[in-house]
Amino acid sequence: MRIPYQLLSADYIRQIREHGLTEAQVLAQMQQFKSGGAPIRLNRPCTVGDGILSIPAGEKEAFVKRHEREAARGRLMKFVPASGAASRMFKEWFRCLEEDCFDTEAVAHSFAGDIRKFAFYEDLNRLVSGRDQSLQQWLEQGRYRDILALILTAEGLNYGYLPKALLKFHAYPDGSRTALEEHLVEAALYVKDHRRICRVHFTVSEEHRHDVEKYLSGIIKRYERQHDVHFDIDVSIQSADTDTIAVDMENRPFIDEAGKLVLRPGGHGALLSNLNQLSEGDIVFVKNIDNVVPDHLKPPAALHKKVLGGYLITLQEQIFHCLRRLAGDFLNDSDLDQIVSFCREKLCIVFPPSFAALPPASKRDMVFSKLNRPVRVCGMVKNEGEPGGGPFWVDEEDGTQSLQIIEEHQFDPHSRAQRAVWSLATHFNPVDLVCGIRDYRDRKHDLQQFVNQRAFSIVKKSEKGRELRALELPGFWNGAMASWITVFVEVPLETFNPVKTVYDLLRPVHQADPVFSSGVSGQTLS
Asked: What angle do CA 438, 179, 501 make, to 5 degrees?
C-alpha cells in the first residue's frame, strides 16, 4: 500500500526538529539515497614494510616505558563502544527455540556437555533450582528448549535482549565476570595515572543505559578494592541527532504504521560524536566490548596496548615538533625537506604529483595541513580467515594514496579488479586503536572536520515485515577517521578474541582456566 506523504508537512517538520535534526539535514540524506555512496578505490593491500610497521622486539620496552610515563600524568582514557545487543550472538539458539533442533542424539549430547562450560551456568542452575529441580535433571529429561527459554527470555536470564556488556563471559573460582567487568580489569592494567585513577568511557544504547549504570554502581567498589584503583567512568548514548531518515525501495520517506517518519541510528560512525565530546584524556584507546580475554591472557594484551600507546605518544611528539617548526619564522628549505621525509617515511603520507613544483610557502602550508590532524595508531593482525575489514592503500582524487581501514561494502563489488585487490589482504582490523585527539597547542581537534562524508553506506533493513533502505554514516574507524594521520602496526593474533556468537565463548581462549578449557567441542545446533 502506498502511503501519501509530504516531507515538509508541519507534522514531519515538528518530528524532525524534536529529534534534534533539521529539515536541511533530512533533505540532504534523501539526496544521498538517490546519488548513492562513492565507492572507495583500493590501490593495494597494506603489508609489513608497505603500510604496516613491525616494531622490533628490542624497541618495545622503550615504548612501554613512554606509555607508562604519560599514563602517570593522566593523559590516557579507554573508550569502549558497548551499544551492541546480544540478539545476533544468540541467533542460532533463537532458531532452535522456535524450531526444536534437538532431533539427534549427537546434537543433544553436545549441548548438554557445552552448557556447563559457559560462565553463566551457575546463574542458570540457580534459576532452575528455584523451580524445585536441578539443571542436571532438566538435561537428563531432554528439556533443552526450556533451558534455552530460560537463557534467552525475560522469564530467566534474558540474555537474548541484554547488551553484550552485561553477559557473563568468563568463569573464575570466585565468580563469573561480564564483558563490562573484564574491560574494567583490563583498564587497570594500562590507563591508571599516578593517583591510580582509571578513566573509562562506555557508549551504550539508550534502552540499556539504566541497566548498565545500575550494574556499574553495584560492582565498581569491589573492583576498585581488588585492583587498588579509582574508576572514573562515563556512560554516553548515541545522540539522536546522528540518526538518519529511512526510505522505501523507491527512495520515498518510509512512513510507519503510526504515520511517522522512521528515523534510525546512523551506525557505529555516529560514535564519532561521542568521542568528539570527551572532556578528559587526549590519548584514547578504542576497543570493542566483545574483545576481552580472561585474566591469564591479560598481561600480553596489556603489553601490546602499551607498545601501541608508547609508539603513538613518541610519534605525536615528533609531529608536534614539526608543526612548531612549520609555524615558526625560521624554516629553511633543508628543514622543510627533512619534515617532508618524515611525513613520507614515518607517516606514509603521499603528496600530490604537483607538490614538487610548488613554491616553498605553498609546500609549507600543505605539509602543515597534512600534519595538523588527529593521529591514530591501529593494531593489525595477520589475516587467518576472521571476518571484517582490513588495511589498504586507497586512491584519492588528487592522485595520492592514503592508508585506510576498509570494509567489504566500501568498494565496488562488481569490479573483478577491486575484488582481486581485496583478496590479497594479509592483515585485518581487530579494532585495536589508540588515538591522539589534541593538537600541538594542546587544543582538542574538532573530529568532525576529518570525516570523508561520501563514505556513507546504504543498507537494506525491515520494519515489521516491510523492506526499507537505511543510511549509515561513515564508519567510526573507516570514513569517520579517513583524514586522520594513520599508522598501522602489526600486533599478535592473540590480542584479538571477539565474541560474535555464543559458541565463541567455548574457545579455549575464553575459558578462564587453561586446564578447564581443554576438550571444548562447540558443536552447533543444526
From this structure: 110
- Across 164-175, b (16+ Cβ under 10 Å) vs e yields bbbbbbbbeeee
pLDDT tens-place string over residues 263-308: 988 888 999 999 999 988 899 999 999 999 999 999 999 999 999 9
- How far apart (Å, rounded) are the C-alpha atoms in residues 221 and 61? 33
Reported as a single tens digit per residue, the pLDDT across 70-115 is 999 999 999 999 988 888 899 989 988 888 777 677 777 888 889 9
Fold of 32-83+173-232+243-510: Spore Coat Polysaccharide Biosynthesis Protein SpsA; Chain A (3.90.550)
Of 279, 271, 273, whose CA–CA distance to 199 is shortest? Answer: 279
Residues facing 380 on adjacent strands: 490
Burial label for 299, CB within 10 Å (0-12, 13-18, 19+), is: exposed
Distance CA 84, CA 500 (A): 10
What are the pLDDT digits (tens) for 327-340?
988 889 999 999 99
Q: For the chain, which residues make up each domain, given as ranges?
A: 32-83+173-232+243-510, 89-152
SS (H, E, C) 386-400: CCCCEEEEEECCCCC
Q: Which three three-digit cell numbers place residue 76?
A: 590516557
d(C-alpha 520, C-alpha 31), whole Å: 51
